[in-house]
Amino acid sequence: LYWTVFSPECRRFSIPRAFNNSLSRVATSVVQLMFQVEPNPFPFNFVANYTVSTEVASMEFRAENGSQIPISDLDDNQAITVAVNNGSATDSNGEGVTGVPLAGAINVSRCDSVIVRVSAGNSNQQAGLFIQLNFTTLDDGDPSIMAYLHSSNWPNEFNFTDRKRITLSMTRGRDLDHRKYTFFLSPESHDTTLDYYVNVTTGCTTDSPSAGVRLEVGVFASLCQYFSESAKLWRTDGMVPLAETNASRAVCSTRHLTAFAASLFVPPDAVTFIRPERGGPSLVVLLTCVVGLLCYAVAAAILHKLDQLDLRRAGTVPLCGHDGTFKYEVQVKTGFSRGAGTSAHVGISVYGCEGRSGHRHLDSPGAFARNGLDIFHIATETSLGSVWKIRVWHDNKGLSPAWKLQYVLVKDLQTGSSYYFLVEEWLSVDNERTDGRVEIEVEASGKDPNP
What we know:
Number of helices: 2
CATH architecture of the domain at 104-225 and 264-274: Sandwich
Helix content: under 10%
């Protein structure tokens, strides 16, 4: 089944194909009846605080024998869209029936912003809220505005639930799409009984024309309703306002068929403008800066203390093994993990492109403690050349032999070249990943990251 009707009454309803397909399975021949009534034939038992302001539209389907086909509990893809004109929609300024009464206006300079607080006073969570923004330019140029919406006090480009960039062309001319400059707060995704805030900011770029503007704000709400013939009262369940709604025409989605209408109303004193303070930095900003500086100072003091401990520990660098012409500095960093230090004896072999150091026993009082940096010297009779590999091991002796080796740094004291070996591994008989080995070979991973 599919209808194409051009009368205004038929255009009140939009029926999805999914609904047509389901209806064709009920009856082979269906009669569609539509009514448009003004004034309201049911002027009683309204939803609290929401008198019907639109015309009343009704639609039903009957089988060929005249029996009514019940329509209820439709799925989302079968929901019918109904549009009803607002009987009280008049524009005293002569701007046309789609104009929204002005709730407030304010001048906003170039590179400036203003917070618009919207207090609609809505008490029904099924109502949709619409915040419409318009502006005129105060100077020459083609300005635009950015608007950020949120339920918190200070929405901005990092804290918003919706945002819009609005240009003059969007709000001028014929056949305008008001959704481009109107925030729609659907009751399906927002609590429309709350206050909302819109941060409106003017342009401030040098590569495009910008100017100060006069901002105009309009606010209205829409509550879609149907008349329950069994209960003899107006209800809202199964109906949701849609973004196509404007101040003169309510557009609703419905899951059942009966008599439809809506309450379109403009709340009084709904808009308050808040100028951001420019006198100086806020207390929050100052406290944040102070706390940040204190944290930096404490961290710097701790790191300086650790450096001093490392320097004192490395003040007398032991020479491991016999002396020689070519000397190398070996820095060994033990990990910070719990139990990372070792009680075992540690050895190292250094491999270069031109030779190797042989086994060297690294020994120093208190060496290889948790988070410790230990420095040793080794010497060879000939140059090792570029160092490309090391082998490190321990003898698994003592009460706590397991060792978390973080890195080794080998420095050629003749050329000043440093070679970095990242290990980050436990040398322990309990380490299944290394099959319990207490030695490891590591190739150079790059230059010293902390020269």
